[in-house]
Amino acid sequence: MWVVLLLAVVIALWVIAAYNGLISLKNQTVNAFKQIDVQLKRRHDLIPNLVNAVKGAMDFERSTLEAVIQARNQAVKVNASGPEGIKQISQAENALSGALSRLLVTVERYPELKATGNIGQLQEELTSTENRIAFARQLYNDTATQYNTKQQQFPTTLVAGLAHAERTDLWEIEDQAERAVPQVDLSRR
Amino acid sequence: MIGFVLFFAWLGFGGDYIWFLSNGHHPFPWVGILLTTVAIVTAWYSYKTGPEKVLWATGAHELIDPQTDAERQLVNVVEEMAIAAGVPRPRIWIVPDDDPNAFATGHDPRDSQIAVTQGLLRICNRDELQAVIGHELGHVKNLDVRLMTTLAALVGAVLLVRDGMGRMMGRGGGRLVGRSSGRRSKDAGPLLVILLALWVISWIIAPLVTQLLAMAVSRKREYLADAMSAQFTRNPLALASALEKIESAAAPTASIKRGAAHLCIADPLGRRFTNREGWLADTLATHPPMSMRISRLKGMGYAQLKKEGGSSAISAPA
């Protein structure tokens, strides 16, 4: 009699702990995702300023700048939620990342540009912006992986339904072209 | 922290209890209450003012409005690593010292401070700076900063109280034994002896144990923070090269005093046994040997390279 009661109490305590652990991880995942949003928003706000700052100095690289602006406007327009939303957002943002990294490579190609005015500072800002987004994604992916693993592992998986735990998507690079190392053309035109 | 207060309560009330057993009558437990109060006040005070005192002692000034490129980069790097660690951005301080070093202090991740020396900003490139900041944020995220800052203050407090009590016992002890032998109640004999022995031993080893504990904790935590840095930056080799640079600039960091040594990324005192292995160094150093840390990081780096096929560039953000 007492043994059964004790067992029931132990199981109840474990269920509570597992449930709370899952809920906490779930909220951490949501928060980590919002952190990516914050950093993406920051990038969207920064890009017009950046492009204006280099426009004069880089008249000859008009296509690179236009690609950045276009990708930025595309990314701002995406306004979706849910698992489909993650895919759409990540597609648009990956395109923007690609355009920005091409801009960075371009700036790198003209050392005399870096010496003039605030291009060096701009480069630092651009690097930092890209890093922030990369790190925010890294945190999201790490947290989401932890959450996914937890809800699939054996004893916890019994409580997963109770906590409405569902697999979350990781932030991935969709495009095969994105995955490739960018080609850098070092010849001067 | 709680352990510290309880330990003092044992020292105090234990003393009172022994007094009670040996004397037979029940005195007001003033030693216990006094010591417990002292412990609570010191613990609270060192917890509250620890970070400010550490920063003040190094002569650091807070970086609020970055002016130079290096300062702007530092602010950016700290913000990036705070994002990677998932903690709020710590306050940034610069220590006017030419020797490269860095430390973190504060109470919890919501209220933390990171200080770097000017020498570190000078010799490290962006990746290395990122790795060093990642190490410090590892300390912040593991709550090491609270533990370390408090430990620093507590070691001092134990020593202080021990010395004071030692003087008092020296004068009063003889009288206590002489007087109590006549009145001692018969049944409390063995218990009294055991308690007394335990109590005296506690007094003797208290400072030693706290100090050794602080050092052991510190060394383990350094490895952990190195690993956290690698986790945040995904670039362990950057930290390895930063540590190599810091070590080769061997001059001791003059503005960081002994009390804050275990908070730093590298032992600021440049002590010899920090770089040795073996039992003595393991027991006495605040930091693990630099060569061990570097080789562990390089191991992580090569494992990572191998996993990625070795040919492609490291995909970690620069």
What does this protein structure show overall?
The complex is a heterodimer of chains A (189) and B (318). With 189 residues, chain A is mostly helical. Helix content of chain A is 78%, strand content 0%. In chain A, helix 1 packs antiparallel against helix 2, helix 1 runs antiparallel to helix 5 and helix 2 packs antiparallel against helix 3. Chain B contains ten helices and four strands; from the N terminus they run ααβαβββααααααα. Chain B has 318 residues and is an alpha+beta fold. Classes of the chains: A mainly alpha (189), B alpha+beta (318). Chains A and B meet through helix 1 and helix 5 of A and helix 3 of B.
List the topology elements:
The complex is a heterodimer of chains A (189) and B (318).
Chain A: H1 2-55, H2 62-77, H3 82-109, H4 111-115, H5 119-152, H6 154-160, H7 176-179
Helix pairs in contact in A: 1-2, 1-5, 2-3, 3-5
Chain B: H1 2-23, H2 30-58, E1 61-62, H3 69-85, E2 91-95, E3 102-108, E4 111-117, H4 118-123, H5 126-141, H6 144-183, H7 189-233, H8 236-248, H9 279-284, H10 290-307
Parallel strand pairs in B: 2-4
Antiparallel strand pairs in B: 1-2, 3-4
Helix pairs in contact in B: 1-2, 1-6, 1-7, 2-6, 3-5, 5-7, 5-8, 6-7, 8-10
Order of secondary-structure elements of chain A: HHHHHHH
Mean pLDDT of chain A comes to: 80
Indicate the percent of residues in helices of chain A.
over 70%
Major sheet summary line of chain B: 4 strands, mixed
- How much strand content do the residues of chain A show? under 5%
Provide the low-confidence segments of chain A as ranges: none
> Within the largest sheet of chain B, what's the order of strands?
1-2-4-3
Helix share, percent of chain B: 55-70%
Question: What is the first-to-last residue Cα distance of chain B?
Answer: 40 Å
What's the overall geometry of chain A? elongated
